[in-house]
TrEMBL record:
PANTHER family named among the record's database cross-references: AMINOPEPTIDASE (PTHR46112), XAA-PRO AMINOPEPTIDASE P-RELATED (PTHR46112:SF2)
Gene (name only): doeA
Official protein name in the record: Ectoine hydrolase
Signal peptide: none
Gene Ontology MF, one: hydrolase activity
């Protein structure tokens, strides 16, 4: 047995996650689970690689030792980063599904009830069809979501990791606000954000920060393209810090000049909507109720603005192309799922289309507690910023002690 010094969490944390997965498997009468989602692999083992476009799987029998099937190059991530002791790699000229088939036969699992993640992004249909066609006696069932049922609430160790990610988020945002002066380019702001995040201990995020200015702010999910920032316009920043693939995210908005009345009104509405969401959140409240807390405030505005998206989403483990866990939980109309302690969410009550051509975004990443919620961020400033070093300096001040 090798040491576990390279693990992101205690070995007891991983043992708990595996045990709870097996309990869910037993309730669903699944003998073997084939886990292929990159986030789920990280959650269960600590395994991560940027090479997840190649087939990779953790095979979890109900009782016997789990093992991994990976590309041979990616196998080098197993030994230093995970607790897994058994691997069955395939070469670049080999066949991943054939290797999986042979391994299941080798360990006497080929005639069991086998669950697989049918909706996993990186387990494409043609590979699933080949897997299903490779066995004569197995019974395959879709177990998509069986790992996410554990991931949706974070443990104390996970929350501590997200606190580290929050420090990177705050540092990146403060640097971005300071850099977003008239005459600078969006690329200048992006460079400042990235340098600050990484110097604060952050790693590459699942999504590059969203950094847009002027009329480009109205383009959904756009980011820097070299535009020069002008006087008296909006600069919008959405920054997601990451540590060990755990993320927190934050939106802030800058006005490069003296803010006009309409932007001050938008600021007040955004602040009210965010405060109302945070006041509403507590165990037992539904996703739809939290969404309504923001939506009814924003919908009453007379600025022409809308909340055109969900009001928030689960956030935590993520790989490109997205930093959110919204497929697990989104705050949106009609969603009746009750909140639970340990759920972590990015709250985004943003105003799109202020006077038709501007926006206001102020967001927060929070964790549901036993009595309400708390933010991961140490800065109290949820406002419309002016650019420059003094504007963002409070973002990086930590609590006394």
């Amino acid at each position: 047995m090798r040491d576990h010094n390279g693990l992101s969490f205690s070995i007891g944390e991983y043992e708990r996650r595996l045990r709870e997965l097996r309990e869910r498997m037993a309730r669903r009468r699944i003998d073997v689970a084939i886990i292929t989602d990159p986030g789920n692999l990280l959650y269960l083992t600590g395994y991560q690689t940027t090479g997840y476009s190649y087939f990779q799987a953790l095979v979890v029998p109900l009782e016997d030792e789990p093992f991994m099937v990976t590309r041979r190059l990616e196998e080098t991530n197993v030994w230093p980063r995970t607790w897994v002791e058994i691997t069955r790699p395939y070469s670049d000229t080999g066949d991943a599904i054939e290797t999986l088939h042979h391994a299941l036969v080798e360990f006497g699992l080929d005639d069991q009830w086998i669950g697989y993640e049918r909706n996993s992004y990186f387990f494409p249909a043609y590979q699933q069809e080949r897997m299903l066609a490779s066995f004569d006696s197995s019974n395959f069932v879709d177990c998509y979501g069986i790992v996410e049922a554990g991931r949706i609430t974070k443990s104390e160790e996970e929350l501590a990791m997200m606190e580290k990610a929050a420090r990177a988020t705050e540092a990146g945002m403060a640097a971005g606000i300071a850099a977003a002066v008239p005459g600078a380019t969006e690329n200048d702001v992006a460079a400042a954000v990235h340098e600050a995040m990484f110097r604060a201990g952050g790693e590459y995020p699942a999504v590059a920060p969203y950094i847009v200015s002027g009329p480009r702010c109205m383009i959904g999910h756009a980011t820097w393209e070299g535009r020069t920032i002008q006087e008296n316009e909006t600069v919008f920043l959405e920054v997601g810090g990451c540590v060990r693939r755990y993320h927190t995210a934050m939106m802030r908005t800058i006005w490069t000049g003296k803010p006009p009345r309409v932007m001050r009104e938008a600021e007040a509405i955004g602040q009210e909507a965010l405060a109302e969401m945070m006041h509403c959140i507590r165990p037992g409240v539904t996703s739809a109720e939290v969404d309504h807390a923001a939506r009814h405030i924003i919908s009453a505005n007379r600025l022409g603005a809308e909340l055109i998206t969900r009001a928030g989403y689960s956030i935590g483990i993520a790989f490109p192309p997205s930093w959110d866990e919204g497929y697990m939980l989104s705050l949106k109309p009609g969603d009746r799922r009750p909140l639970e302690p340990g759920m972590t969410m990015h709250l985004i009550p943003w105003l799109w289309g202020v006077e038709g051509d501007k926006l206001l975004g102020i967001s927060e990443t929070v964790v549901v507690t036993e009595t309400g919620c708390r933010s991961f961020f140490e800065s109290p400033e949820r406002k419309l910023f002016r650019p420059g070093p003094l504007a963002g300096s409070a973002m990086v001040q930590h609590r006394a002690g």
